[in-house]
Amino acid sequence: MPWSHHSHSGQFCGHATNTLEEVVQTAISKKMSTFCVTEHIARQESDFYPGEGDVHTQKTLAKLYDDFYHEARRLQQKYADQIQLLIGFEGEWIRDYSLGLIQDLLEKYEVDLFVGSVHHVHTVPIDYDVAMYHKARDVAGGSDERIFEDYFDSQFEMLKALKPPLVGHFDLIRLNSDQPDRSFKTWPVVWEKILRNLKFVAEYGGVLELNSSSLRKGMTEAYPQSEICKEFKDLGGRFTFSDDSHGVHQVGLNYDRTWNNVMRAGMTELYYLAPIAGEEKPHDPRFPRVCWQRKSVFAVKEHPFFQS
Known about the structure:
The chain is an alpha/beta fold. It has one domain (3-306): Metal-dependent hydrolases (TIM Barrel), CATH 3.20.20.140. 39% of the residues lie in helices and 16% in strands. Strands 1-2-3-4-7-8-9 form a seven-stranded parallel sheet. A two-stranded antiparallel sheet has the order 5-6. Strands 10-11 form a two-stranded antiparallel ribbon. A hairpin with a 2-residue loop joins strand 5 (120-121) and strand 6. Helix 5 runs parallel beside helix 6. 44% of the residues are buried.
């Protein structure tokens, strides 16, 4: 303990810092027991971020993931006696081609998980900066309420198509909104779509990450907000910790504040991925080597990481 199931490095992600090995070494120094490395997958050039086309093509982005995978396997073996390093990717759900890219990657590589994420609405990035969020919002109809509806509809399409084992930053859409800490319940249609998505994730057995990255970006709660966590918990849903780190200084950052979501939602247990042992069965036949393990929140809280 503790764990992170979502991370990046500057070696394989243009908006992160530090090498993958430095990130892993930092996780070890913080006495993490499980650390999942999940770099981004390729995108078509029409969906590149500003300036990205100056250094990459879709082909070179695909090769970057290939290089990441082989380096992650090397580090997995090198540090096997110090940390459980698991390997996956963070998916991108943008246009029709996204499904094929993710399916191809799952066929090409034996991974332990992938993070199902939505970073775009109407093909426009909603977490890159405020200007791009406003552009996407204009396409959606000009209000936060309208773009929130479209975001959760897009997320639902991703969930139905992929059934990701881990759902990334469930309510990322609030990052650049006018009121990022506003209760979703104040918008009945948005809340209805959230409940629909949560029910679907609970039914297929997906896990929501308590993603601490929102806290370093100025919000008061981790993703997802505690009101969402409470609903998912009541549906029998499962949660895990993720730092969504983009460099060594963000590994395990703000986990103490993420604990607030656990308490407010009344969680009694958290989950982490671990290798199959004995008669255990995989959580998903696509990932035959791992399964979700349960840990009491009280046992987690007693870990020295949370006592410092």
